[in-house]
Specification:
This protein has about 950 residues and is an alpha+beta fold. Strands 1, 20, 21, 22, 23 and 24 form a 6-stranded antiparallel β-sheet that branches. A hairpin with a 5-residue loop joins strand 25 and strand 26. It is globular.
């Protein structure tokens, strides 16, 4: 159900006053909810943040539901001037913004995400209004559905941001030579001191929160609750991050989490459906509460805002495994819920007093102002224990020096995080001794963690301090120390030894950290810890990707060690990792040995049939992916039990190769394996895959396998389908045919017998055959080429002699180009870029232009061949194939038309082996018209060079 339809089914909503709204809340009996700000102090809020003095900044955005920004966004500064815990003044800190949607404090100022820019603003004259505003990053996608929605500081002294959808192409403002960053649907990370940005690891879009381990909780577009298992510094080499295995769902219920708005449990219209099934969690913000004002059983829980169901959902976190499991402690109710459908919580944050603050974008929906009256509402609530007594606390902004260091041990997370940010911004080197003492002797784990990162931020983290932290009694401290040690491993053997030792840590979360970083350990030191990790955690699929990455350059040694352990081979859960390791041995660029696979398989016990087959399949996958056909051949030619499993794989490959529902990678491996079959057994099957209904990768792999079989009978099969092949497939086919002497000779025979046009072959590589070292191939190719050149030169010379004496009319030539050629060619500021630009040919002179125009298909590049596509819905599309993707093609036609056609909608595809220019068109121009057109092109090109 969409938001609009859900709203339409609700009774007409009547806004309540702030005091009336307070009476609509139902919450845990341990707590009370208090109003700390409301309209007119704040209107249509979307984001908030406390600064180091306890003041509150709030972003007001009248509308986020449309793609057009109205410039009415602004930042308010709210203060509690009398110290009673309620904000009583509000001033405009910054206005005339497009659509501010996220805030973060830094160095006495404020970051504001106001798409398409990240701004930094500061009040330098202390009048409560920003007087210096600069753009830090630009390029965020401006569509409402792509608004970055969160900013937050990590323990790594970096600002992390989330965005929905692609997020744009991000650039550092004022640095035109800096390389842009494409988050690709992930978030971004900013180092505020170096002003350096990078793509983050996770695809969150609905809020984020960090725990003591530095791991991030987030919710992607599907509304599930996830935790990142790695951090920005732990990306898997070869990938961008954010892929399976790097984050995990935490809710026992899965992606759809039932919730209980007020009235849902007693709904008379449930029709026998459990109340929990009628509503699912809609995530609009989340936080891990780490304050010090609440009872201990409510701390380190995840609190999730749900603006659609008007509630706050609580989840406990059982954090004893690799990823915490979360459960709902309130079984038929919620931590906070309201009967007022105008309650729209969009952000929550821990505050300076240790309580939780909730930002309410009060109204009919969180995306737009109230449509009833046009009024703008906004409320901020504090959720506090009933016994809580407000008292004045020391703020980080009122202390300096060692006072900030002491706050890294504060029991309230907001104080710790604010102090850490201020230390990094200040770069005060005189704090180093105090931080070293704290890192070594703090009684609080979070104090030791904060000191380590603060020292790192001051470039003062000593290896002795770091080594001691890597053996800390607290697992979270060991994990943070391990991350910080990674850049130093190449120069400190002791730290490297600590990393390898942590591969056997008693805590699985620390072992995961070690697995993520083993790539930084020297090769000769890596095998033992990787084997240890595989034996301890290889059965956990969440470890699989990082362990495969860790073993990339030592897969041979790791696999050899593992297959020597019978109990490891006997554990079915280890099979996926063993398959991955086998595949990696073929992909490895270090120490590759084509005899490794058959030798390893022959060393297995005779009764290890399933494992032998699993490993053989992994070797096949890797050999095909790496194009190591010699190694594949050695594997297929093995004898004994290995021959039996390879024979089984060949039988299975026949069905997998032709199964359109099989994963593409599986199909490609199967097709590649069939290259070891005979032409009689696999030729017809492979040729049947070279059709437009198949992905282009399948077609090209089928051609690859046919060429490896090497039977000249493949050439007629290819030529029989030649006019129905796309450009990429044609290139693959001709490359493989011309690169194989037997196949090349078969092709030349086909040309001599009229099965293929000599003109087509000229464009595909007969020139190379005419220089072939084997005279059996060279001589017929040279003869065919010579005959063709004599005929062509005689024809063009005659035409050239006819028109060179004519006086061209340049204006008439321009009109001819505009009315005819401009449909496909761009020249002199007009036309479309369907065919090649004419600047190059015009510069080549009259003879070359005459040749290209009067014989347009003689020298046309193959990328400009014209295709005719018939679709299943009886449409005909003609043009140049501009792109060939797995499931669709893109066709550019005359006049700049662009067509995207899915492969399952292609009834037929035919290549004309000609350009889009009609063959007889120059005859229609006549000799004078041809002279006029060529004269215009040559003269215009010459003027352009002056």
């Amino acid at each position: 159900m969409t938001e609009a339809s859900a709203v339409a089914q609700q009774p007409r909503w009547q806004p309540l006053t702030p005091l009336q709204a307070l009476s609509t809340f139902e919450l845990d009996s341990t707590f009370r909810i208090e109003l700390v700000a409301s309209e007119p102090l704040i209107e249509q809020p979307i984001a908030m943040v406390f600064d180091e003095s306890g003041r509150l900044f709030a972003a007001e955005t009248p509308s986020i539901a449309t793609d057009s920004a109205d410039g009415n966004g602004r930042i308010k500064l709210l203060e509690d001037t009398d110290g009673d815990g309620v904000f009583d003044t509000a001033g405009v800190y910054l206005d005339k913004l497009a659509r501010p949607c996220a805030l973060a404090c830094w160095d006495g100022g404020l970051y504001v995400l106001d798409t398409p820019n990240l701004l930094f603003c500061r009040d330098t004259d202390s009048d409560g209004r920003a007087d210096r505003v600069s753009t830090v990053i630009t390029g965020f996608a401006a569509q409402s559905q792509a608004l970055p929605v969160s900013l937050g500081w990590g323990a790594d002294n970096r600002l992390h941001g989330e965005s929905i959808a692609a997020g744009g192409l991000l650039k550092i403002a004022g640095a035109p030579n800096a390389k842009p960053v494409d988050p690709g649907g992930l978030g971004f990370v900013l180092d505020p001191r170096a002003v350096h940005i990078a793509a983050d690891c996770f695809p969150g879009s609905r809020g984020m929160a960090f725990d003591i381990w530095g791991r991030r909780y987030f919710s992607p577009d599907d509304g599930s609750l996830q935790i990142g298992l790695c951090t920005e510094t732990q990306r898997i080499p070869g990938g961008r991050g954010g892929t399976a295995g790097e984050y995990a769902g935490i809710a026992d219920e899965g992606a759809s989490i039932p919730v209980f708005p007020i009235g849902s449990a007693e709904s008379p219209d449930a029709g026998g459906v459990p109340a929990a099934a009628q509503h699912s969690l809609y995530v609009s913000g989340l936080v891990v509460y780490q304050g010090d004002a609440w009872p201990i059983e409510y701390r380190d829980c995840l609190y999730v805002l749900d603006s659609r169901n008007n509630l706050i959902h609580r989840r406990t976190l059982d954090d004893t495994g690799l990823a915490p499991r979360s459960q709902r402690p309130e079984q038929t109710k919620e931590f906070v819920r309201s009967s007022d459908t105008g309650f729209r919580p969009v952000q929550c944050a821990g505050g300076p007093d240790g309580n939780l603050y909730v930002l309410d974008r009060y109204g009919l929906s969180p995306e737009s102002p109230d449509s009833n009256s046009g009024n703008r509402y906004g409320r901020i609530y504090r959720v506090a224990p009933r016994s809580f007594a407000h008292e004045k606390r020391v703020m980080p902004g009122s202390v300096s020096g060692t006072g900030l260091v002491d706050m890294l041990e504060h029991t309230n997370a907001w104080h710790r995080e604010t102090a850490a940010r201020m230390i990094y911004a200040s770069q005060e080197k005189n704090l180093i001794p105090s931080l070293q003492t704290l890192a070594n002797k703090s009684t609080a784990p979070y104090g030791r963690i904060g000191a380590l990162h603060a020292l790192a931020g001051l470039s003062a983290l000593d290896n002795e301090v770091l080594a001691r932290a890597m053996s800390d009694e607290e697992a979270a401290v060991r994990a943070h120390a391990l991350r910080l040690a990674v850049p130093r491993l190449a120069t400190d053997a002791r730290l490297m030894g600590n990393v390898t030792a942590l591969a056997g840590d008693r805590d699985v979360r620390v072992r995961y950290e070690a697995a993520c970083h083993i790539n930084s350990v020297w090769l000769e030191e890596r095998v033992a810890p990787v084997v240890r990790l595989c034996r301890l955690d290889g059965a956990d699929p969440r470890f699989s990707k990082v362990l495969a990455s860790a073993a990339r350059d030592v897969a041979h040694s790791v696999l050899r060690e593992l297959v020597a352990v019978p109990e490891y081979l006997a554990t079915p859960e280890n099979a996926p990792l063993l398959h991955s390791l086998a595949r990696l041995t073929m992909l490895s660029r270090r120490g590759f040995d084509s005899s490794f696979a058959p030798n390893l398989l022959s060393s297995l016990p005779e009764d290890a049939g399933e494992i032998r087959k699993l490993l053989a399949a992994g070797f096949v996958d890797g050999a095909v992916a790496a194009g190591r056909w010699g190694a594949l051949k050695r594997l297929v030619q093995a004898d004994g039990p290995t021959a039996e499993v390879v024979a089984q794989l060949l039988i299975e490959a026949q069905s997998t190769a032709t199964d359109p529902s099989a994963p593409l990678d599986d199909r490609l491996s199967a097709i590649g394996l069939l290259s070891s079959e005979t032409f009689e057994n696999a030729g017809g099957l492979l040729a049947g895959l070279i059709v437009q209904s198949e992905p282009v990768e399948v077609q090209t792999m089928a051609i690859q396998s046919l060429s490896l079989i090497g039977n000249p009978r493949m050439v007629p099969l290819i030529l029989g389908a030649w006019f129905n092949l796309g450009p990429r497939v044609r290139w693959q086919a001709m490359d493989k045919i011309l690169g194989n002497g037997v196949l090349a000779l078969a092709l030349l025979e086909a040309v001599e017998n009229g099965a293929m046009d000599i003109e087509s072959l000229v464009r595909w590589g007969i020139l190379d055959l005419a220089r072939h070292p084997n005279s059996v191939i060279r001589n017929p190719a040279s003869r065919l080429l010579a005959q063709r050149e004599i005929q062509e030169n005689d024809r063009i010379a005659a035409a050239y002699n006819d028109i060179r004496t004519l006086q061209p009319s340049v204006p008439n030539g321009r009109a001819l180009f505009e009315n005819n050629c401009s449909k496909c060619h761009y020249f002199d500021g007009m036309g479309y870029r369907v065919g090649p630009d004419l600047d190059y040919m015009a510069n080549a002179g009259t003879y070359q232009l005459l040749k290209s125009i009067s014989s347009p298909n003689t020298d046309v590049l193959t990328i400009y061949y014209s295709y005719s596509i018939e679709t299943n819905d009886f449409q005909t599309v003609a043009g140049i194939i501009a792109a060939e993707e797995e499931n669709y093609i893109v066709v550019h036609g005359p006049g700049g038309e662009e067509h995207t056609i899915t492969r399952d909608n292609i009834a037929s595809l035919t290549c004309t082996d000609q350009s889009l220019m009609p063959e007889g068109w120059p005859d229609a121009l006549g000799k004078q018209g041809l002279a006029d057109l060529i004269g215009y092109l040559v003269e215009t090109s010459q003027k352009a060079k002056i």
